[in-house]
Amino acid sequence: MLGRFWRRASPDWRRIRLWLVVIGPGIITANVDNDAGGITTYSLAGAQFGYAFLWTLIPITVALILVQEMCARMGVVTGKGLSDLIRERFGVRWAFYSLLALVIANFGNILAEFSGVAAALEIFGISKFVSVPLGAAFVWWLAIKGSYRSVEKVFLVACVFYVSYLISGLMATPRWGDVLQATVVPTWSFQAAYLSMFLGVVGTTIAPWMQYYIQSSIADKKLRAETYAITRWDVVVGCIITDVVAFFIILACAETIYRHGLQIETAKDAALALGPLAGPWAAWLFAFGLFNAGLFAASVLPLSTAYAICEGLGWEAGLNFGFKEAPAFYGIYTGLIALGAGLVLLPGAPLLGIMFWSQVVNGVLLPFVLIFMLLLINNRRLMGRHVNGLGLNLLSWSVVAVLITCTVLLVVSFLWPNLFGAH
Amino acid sequence: MALFLSDLLHARVRDRQGAVVGRLRDLVVRQLADTADIRGLVIQRNRRLAYLPMTAVATLGPGHIMLREAPTWESPPPDEEVWLIRDLLDAQVIDVTGARVVRVNDIVLEPQPGRLLIVSMDVGNWGLLRRLGWAPAARWLATLFGLRAMEKFIPWVDIAPLSKDPTQVQLMVALDRIKCFPPDDLASVVDEMGWQQRQHLCRTLSDTQLANLLHESRPELQVALLDEMGSARTAAVVAVMTDDAVADLIASLPPNHAETVGATLPAARAAAIERLLSDRSRPPGSSPL
User: Fold this and answer.
1) Contact indicator for A219, A80 with CB cutoff of 8 Å
2) What residues of A are in contact with residue B131 (Cβ under 8 Å)?
3) Contacts of B189 in chain A (CB under 8 A)
4) What is the value of ipTM here, to two decimals?
């Protein structure tokens, strides 16, 4: 008699189970994209411009899918991370300086995540001197104690909590006719404020760390070409979910804050403003979403940074090593968390300055990462028959050209704020 | 006198009269581990490449190469052989002494009259600093603080390719030595390999070695190994495992792969392992029904 451990399941059931094993990296990477910084940007877009930015989410989703799919494909075909491939194909200098930029950019993000955790829990009356150290300890412990599989499960649960934005968006009772029109009919303005918000939305949605993270996690999960069809779905579905969440954040703020002509500057302001307008539950869900996003991204970013650096420079990396065997790996990981959380608590720390410059570095790094990616994915020695086809290349080079233009403009507008005229 | 490959990167190549004919693109060896002799060099001018045998080189030192004869730009470089910069520099190798995967930061060469020999791979952090151009500053700091430079080299004779396919140079430290690693070290090294390297290595392992490797691997690696082994090899490997080890394996695998492993078991053994697994899932002390 065959036992329950190897009774042959029906082909359908086997297929469903295969899906469950393979999915993860795409959905997780895309959701982490809606981190504390992302939520702030979308909140401001909705609060200052109403529905005007809804349509941008459609082209942004397409661009996000294109970029993420290429990294996922490289991860599956080569079994290596992006920093591995940059080192092997472009040499140590490109690898080193791009990694240095990645650390600076990611450090700014980590700082923003812990600030998000602090701000979100302050709405519930919890002091940041409690929430941030506990959050940092939880994040650190999660990776040190968990295996990839258990950590991935925790992350997938964190993805589910983004539904809080859908609910708070719905509670704001949007006018669906207008929403639909604003989503499918593009609008444009050459106002300085509109342009810089547009660049901000693009910049927060497509960030360099995502390319490193998705490829490493696919390589780490040892996904193979045979199941690539599923991985591609993982990427596509993840990107769509992410932008649906962004859509509802914009909706919630547009319907309340923008309609009543209020001014906000942070995601915390947005949550507080929602209370009187859409009910306390909407505000709490919004704040909870921010807390979840901050903590989630604070778990992913330090780990992925440590992996990328150690892989690229040939140092021991991985949670299956001890502190003594992989000192650089644990040093970078622990350092990023401790420094990120510590600075948020330090009175008078130049948080805004650090985040500002890390965004500039982020913007400088992205064009390089995108070009590296396109060169790598078209390298036949590396990718064999999995290189981009002509059509895909035309599309992806154009998307990358647009992204690079936006990023360069963003960096320029950071450095010279009056470029598009006075605000 | 030793010479680093990094000293020759993009070096100007001149003819006897001192005129620049191009820049060094790469150094070519016939086969890894075959010989320590560099066969020739690939020179680049604008977008054109030319191949020259080592015998065409008159003198060679940091940043400069002088030729005996002018390159003929018609001779195509041998794409199927191993190019040191393209295939070896910055690639992953296994450090046998530490049982870990490291990167080739630099390559140590030794010029001798009429030939150029490969001595070793520099896998230490000093090699990294040298490539980045920070070595002088780092050396100054090290002397200032009285630190000793930590150099790490892997001798050329220890390098062996894993694959016979020369376009996919899968650089390895001598295979027979990898196979002598304790299974847990082997598992952590295999975990860091790309799948092509992993597949080549597993083909050369015995069933018992593979069984031990499987036992020491984390679940993601187990799944990857099983996928690559195919059902015949899986059956052979499972056959040499103890019942306890098979039960461990099945318990840690996702259901589809547990089924695949289960399907290779003869009925009697399947029943025994089934009992083991259900005993384990029962809390200790409770009696079997």
Assistant:
1) yes
2) 91-93
3) none
4) 0.77
